[in-house]
UniProtKB/TrEMBL annotation:
Pfam families the UniProt entry points to: PhyH
Upper taxonomic lineage: Bacteria, Bacillati, Actinomycetota, Actinomycetes, Micromonosporales
Record has ATP-binding as a keyword: no
Name of the protein described by the UniProt record: Phytanoyl-CoA dioxygenase family protein
Matches recorded under Gene3D superfamilies: q2cbj1_9rhob like domain
Keywords, alphabetical: Dioxygenase, Oxidoreductase
Species of the source: Planosporangium thailandense
């Protein structure tokens, strides 16, 4: 765990819901791109924090053989990133889709330097959720979660480790692929590499079929991903003792909710039994942003 908290609540300006046009596009394509969501200063600050984590892991031999880093539990390992979880430019998209009874269930820091050449064949295409995609029987499966990808490096050209996805595939349960993951296989029809600038954010439905492409450029790929789901779904991140950390009390109530906080004696419950004691519900109610026409936001 890194020692110092560098977290300031950003929720004070997160009061603009997803627009009807954004909702229509998200439901159609399964993702949105938010250009310039982070300011250049924010990009520099968060990038410096990620670089420090990378150096620490490098010093203790925790990088992959290709010198990449895929580190789960982003805020636990880098408290300086806490300001991203309710960032005003993009967090409204999360509660506009999932509602107020949410938390971050899965997050990761990704750093991928240039590869010397393409990696051996491996079928990386997947939907987020793991066993959910085998154990839920509906077609299409329920959305359940959404993800924010904060880009701290320039992936404005293909071949830089771009997020690759198939627009509109979030309503498709199965993707034709090879009989074994290690067989060479053509890219799926309709696959596109998402090209974005540092500070851009990609918001996507966990069901969209996606993969990470190889980074064959001299630009180190750097991004932070946060996955949000309902609080009655188990957290994958390591959060059990976050409340013991010295920086925990510096977080806002909503940030603590998003990082697993509950059961503080006020009635808050992961199942949302007492909405009035749930921090995000209270904030949205105070701003009259609870929409009775949309089930997750019903007062």
């Amino acid at each position: 765990m890194r020692g110092e908290a560098v977290s300031v609540s950003t929720l004070g300006t997160t009061w603009t819901p997803m627009s009807p046009a954004q909702r229509d596009q998200f439901e159609r394509d399964g993702y949105l791109i938010l250009p310039g969501a982070l300011s250049p200063d924010e990009v520099g600050r968060y990038r410096a924090a990620v670089e420090a984590v990378y150096r620490t892991k490098d010093a203790v031999g925790r990088l992959a053989p290709d010198r990449s880093l895929h580190l789960l539990s982003a805020v636990r390992n880098c408290p300086e990133l806490a300001g991203l979880i309710d960032h005003p430019a993009v967090f409204p998209l999360v509660w506009s889709i999932l509602g107020w009874n949410v938390h971050v269930y899965h997050s990761h820091i990704d750093v991928h330097p240039q590869l010397p050449g393409p990696k051996p064949a491996w079928w990386h295409w997947h939907q987020d959720g793991g066993r959910q995609n085998r154990e839920l029987e509906t077609d299409p499966r329920p959305r359940i979660s959404v993800k924010l990808a904060f880009w701290l490096s320039d992936v404005s050209r293909p071949g830089r480790g771009n997020l690759t996805l198939i627009p509109g595939s979030h309503r498709t349960n199965w993707l034709p692929g090879p009989p074994r993951r290690d067989l060479a296989w053509p890219q799926p029809d309709g696959a596109v590499q998402i090209t974005v600038e540092p500070g851009d954010v990609v918001f996507f439905d966990r069901r969209i079929w996606h993969a990470r492409s190889d980074n064959l450029s001299p630009v180190t790929r750097m991004a932070v991903f946060f996955g949000y789901t309902y609080r009655w779904i188990a957290v994958r991140d390591e959060v059990a003792d976050l409340w013991r950390q010295p920086w925990w009390q510096e977080l806002s109530p909503v940030q603590r909710q998003l990082l697993g906080g509950a059961g503080d004696g006020s009635g808050d419950h992961l199942w949302g039994h007492d909405p009035g004691s749930t921090p995000l519900y209270r904030e949205l109610a105070a701003r009259q942003l609870l929409d009775p026409g949309y089930p997750p936001l019903i007062p």
